[in-house]
């Protein structure tokens, strides 16, 4: 006992010592390896030892650029720029001889994914390709700091072992996947660190201010963007991924301070069914190398007990559906330089060392398993192609006659995933839907990327496990609210394929009818119609919206929500207005019609009282403590980045002091808002302004009397029932809606539904807020259907709750409106189909008739 006590005391003293003293390079590097003294260490370039400070992004790339100059084993290439214009780099590290022949090696390696040619390749003499990605979450910095050591080691290590590794392996290192977040975090922890390290978890060093640094500039989790590809960081990275087609990808993360170290496999029952069983087996085999390496340095770890490989939009799972093996590493985070944990003081150098050690064990495994990994990739694509020939589904067809921009954006994503896509050769009719070459696309399944196509298009509703680390459904044509159909052997022939689409083009808009001296009109169906209207508002142009239908002189019917721009009374001349509209129509893919008379052939006339004047939205978005930064960022990104709508970000602690008179729209993302004045907000809404609440914000609005929505009560477990304690976690987790897709119905005459042409709309849901329908029959513009589940997992109990519940509800507060959405219509920036609900709330909330809304 005394001996054990003495060992424990010694360990604690050592941790305390390490918390104050900086680890030297020898703490990290493997023993019995000599290093080339002509290759500079990180300290020689940066002026401090790895782990002494948190590296900023500019310092990181300074070292990487320097290593490119001094080492013939390294080349560096910029693959993109972040939203904050920081460069993203990929380093290629291999032997000098391989570098001389790198393009041929790359071309040969890519042929592994071509079943027609892969059998001719000599795998025995082919290098494996390993991709190592660090710190996709900015406040998980041990990865990027370990990248310094990885690059130094690969550049400077000497001896037959490293020579063999570099001859037989091409190592691709992405040292900072999220440069904006990494830089934000380094600035925070370095600023809040003292000369004497404080390990108290209450210290500001370990408690970042909102929105924290996990995310990128717009507060998106880039580790969820591998499939949606909505950010420049992801788009550039994926282009390089497919340029190389790696065999093994490592993804270095951090988790809670009181944890240890995790490496995949994750929980076996939660693998995606489309991933081959061999991927899991290879992951297990690679795990043995990590275990051996971590055992050697005495680091605690675990595997197969948490996390999963289900959602293909994550960095460690996307490779699994591309013939590679993805490995997730999760290191307990010091969240600063040294912090107390249940396992003793956790130091930043310790976290870096574990990431570096498993970097080396990954390379060791890849080298030892080189032929296995290469064979797995070749077999994956051969088997995928063979499977595609046997399935009943032969192709997917999708499009939108009235809004080809949404179809274009989906085609754009599909092409970035190296999936072959075509235009129909001629119009194809499936059921009652016509798919024309101008606005539709066909994705044949008989191609090597068959499994990825299925992952993007399938509507899965049955699962082996009821718990998910991330979302359970992401069906892309549903996310884009596109008409789409399955083509099988009866209605598909390869001859139907027209032009192969290599570089999708945004549809161009136009003005039909030339310059008008009277008015112009455009329908709200086009995805970018709000951007045109906003452009007009920015130029001071007055606009009206049609709250009923009408026909023009040529017989064209204009639907609810049509925007009318009179020529008279504008601050610009008729010629200037025409030029402005012409440029805006072309850019936004919108057809604008010249109206020569106000006397329509049917429906309301252009001077009708049913043509309502619109105010330019002046938007404030609440941010700060209590607000879900992901959801707020998605709203901000949509408005600012995609629709060029200026949005003022106001923190919750500044709201009570702000002059609200300059705004007429308030966006409240999911979150808690207990610090803002409900009386000030009420007075502002009553003046005729609009509040848009989403997620838990609607609960706050209801609790504070700003919305009269009521929620369905979930039935409790009957008293006296006994259940197994061991099942507690799984049973409670099964009641979570981590992310699934549900069908709703729209009232197409309601301002919040303007621009939709189909009264059925798929909505993404990731919470258990179930809203009771209003007693007012006009106040339920969007409702869940009686059989709403379209894709994903939901428990039977929650499925009963969501049936026939309200998906959008409006409350009249004085002259203003509160629009309540339990769901997030802007989810991860790729939920194009419901963006219109959010934008309609912004532009048309002001015109909703009070009698059609719930009343406070």
UniProtKB/TrEMBL annotation:
Its cofactor is Zn(2+). PROSITE patterns: PEPTIDASE_M14 (PS52035). Residues 1-21 form the signal peptide. InterPro entries: Class_I_gatase-like (IPR029062), Peptidase_M14 (IPR000834). One of its GO terms (molecular function) is carboxypeptidase activity. Residues 53-352 form the Peptidase M14 domain. Keywords: Carboxypeptidase, Hydrolase, Metalloprotease, Protease, Signal, Zinc. It holds the Pfam family Peptidase_M14. CDD domains: M14-like (cd06238). The active site is at 330 (proton donor/acceptor). Belongs to the peptidase M14 family. This is Zinc carboxypeptidase. It comes from Pontibacter populi.
């Amino acid at each position: 006992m005394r001996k054990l006590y003495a060992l424990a005391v010694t360990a604690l003293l050592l941790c305390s010592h390490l918390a104050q003293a900086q680890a030297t390079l020898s703490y990290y590097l493997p023993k019995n390896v000599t290093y080339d003294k002509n290759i500079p260490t990180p300290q020689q370039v940066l002026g401090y030892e790895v782990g002494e400070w948190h590296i900023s992004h500019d310092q990181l790339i300074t070292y990487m650029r320097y290593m490119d100059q001094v080492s013939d084993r390294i080349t560096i290439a910029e693959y993109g720029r972040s939203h904050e214009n920081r460069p993203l780099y990929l380093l290629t590290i291999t032997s000098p001889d391989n570098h001389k022949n790198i393009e041929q090696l790359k071309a040969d390696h890519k042929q592994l994914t071509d079943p027609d040619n892969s059998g001719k390749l000599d795998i025995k003499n082919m290098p494996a390709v390993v991709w190592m990605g660090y710190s996709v979450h900015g406040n998980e910095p041990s990865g990027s700091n370990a990248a310094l050591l990885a690059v130094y080691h690969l550049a400077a290590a000497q001896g037959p072992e490293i020579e063999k590794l570099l001859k037989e392996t091409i190592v691709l290192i992405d040292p900072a996947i999220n440069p904006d977040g990494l830089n934000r975090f380094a600035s925070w922890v370095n600023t809040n660190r003292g000369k004497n390290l404080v390990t108290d978890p209450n210290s500001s060093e370990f408690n970042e201010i909102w929105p924290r640094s996990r995310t990128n500039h717009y507060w998106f989790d880039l580790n969820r963007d591998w499939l949606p590809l909505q950010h420049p960081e992801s788009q550039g990275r994926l282009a390089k991924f497919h340029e190389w087609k790696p065999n093994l990808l490592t993804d270095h993360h951090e988790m809670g301070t009181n944890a240890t170290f995790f490496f995949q496999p994750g929980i076996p029952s939660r693998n995606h069914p489309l991933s081959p069983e061999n991927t899991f087996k290879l992951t297990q085999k690679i795990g043995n190398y990590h275990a051996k390496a971590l055992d050697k340095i005495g680091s605690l770890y675990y595997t197969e007990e948490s996390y999963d490989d289900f959602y293909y939009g994550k960095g460690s799972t996307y490779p699994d559906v591309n013939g590679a093996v993805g490995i997730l590493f999760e290191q307990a985070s010091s969240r600063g330089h040294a912090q107390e944990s249940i396992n003793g003081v956790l130091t930043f150098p310790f976290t870096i060392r574990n990431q570096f050690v498993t970097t080396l064990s990954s390379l060791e495994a890849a080298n030892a398993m080189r032929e296995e990994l290469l064979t797995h990739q070749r077999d994956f694509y051969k088997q995928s192609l063979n499977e595609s020939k046997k399935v009943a589904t032969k192709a997917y067809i999708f499009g939108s006659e009235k809004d080809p921009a949404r179809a274009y954006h989906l085609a754009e994503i599909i092409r970035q995933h190296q999936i072959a896509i075509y235009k129909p050769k001629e119009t194809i009719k499936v059921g009652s839907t016509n798919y024309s070459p101008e606005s539709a696309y066909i994705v044949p399944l008989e191609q090597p990327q068959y499994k990825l196509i299925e992952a993007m298009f399938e509507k899965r509703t049955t699962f082996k496990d009821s718990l998910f680390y991330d979302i359970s459904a992401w069906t892309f044509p549903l996310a884009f609210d596109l008409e789409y159909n399955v083509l099988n052997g009866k209605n598909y022939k390869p001859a139907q394929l027209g032009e192969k689409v290599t570089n999708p083009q945004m549809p161009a808009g136009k003005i039909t009818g030339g310059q008008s001296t009277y008015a112009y009109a455009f329908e709200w169906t086009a995805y970018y119609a709000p951007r045109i209207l906003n452009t007009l508002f920015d130029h001071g142009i007055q606009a009206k919206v049609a709250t009923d239908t009408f026909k023009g002189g040529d017989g064209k019917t204009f639907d609810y929500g049509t925007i009318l721009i009179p020529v008279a009374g504008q601050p610009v001349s008729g010629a200037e207005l025409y030029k402005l509209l012409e440029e805006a129509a072309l850019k936004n893919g919108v057809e604008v019609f010249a109206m020569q008379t106000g006397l329509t052939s049917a429906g309301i006339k252009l001077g009708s009282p049913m043509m309502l004047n619109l105010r330019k939205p002046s938007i404030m978005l609440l941010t700060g403590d209590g607000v879900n930064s992901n959801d707020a960022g998605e709203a901000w990104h949509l408005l600012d980045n995609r629709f060029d709508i200026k949005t003022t970000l106001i923190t919750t602690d500044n709201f009570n002091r702000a002059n609200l008179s300059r705004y007429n729209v308030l966006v409240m993302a999911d979150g808690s808002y207990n610090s803002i004045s409900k009386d000030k907000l009420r007075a502002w809404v009553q003046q005729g302004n609009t509040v848009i609440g989403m997620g838990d914000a609607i609960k706050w609005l209801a609790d504070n009397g700003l919305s009269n929505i009521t929620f369905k009560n979930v039935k409790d477990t009957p008293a006296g029932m006994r259940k197994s304690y061991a099942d507690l976690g799984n049973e409670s987790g099964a009641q979570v809606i981590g992310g699934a897709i549900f069908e709703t119905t729209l009232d197409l005459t309601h301002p919040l539904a303007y621009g939709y042409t189909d009264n059925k709309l798929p909505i993404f849901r990731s919470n258990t807020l179930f809203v009771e329908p209003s007693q007012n029959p006009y106040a339920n513009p969007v409702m869940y259907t009686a059989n709403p589940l379209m894709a994903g997992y939901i428990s039977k109990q929650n499925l009963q709750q969501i049936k026939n519940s309200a998906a959008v509800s409006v409350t009249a507060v004085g002259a203003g409106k509160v629009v309540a959405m339990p769901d997030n219509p802007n989810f991860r920036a790729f939920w194009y189909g419901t963006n219109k609900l959010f934008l309609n709330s912004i532009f048309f909330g002001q015109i909703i008739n009070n009698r059609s809304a719930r009343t406070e």
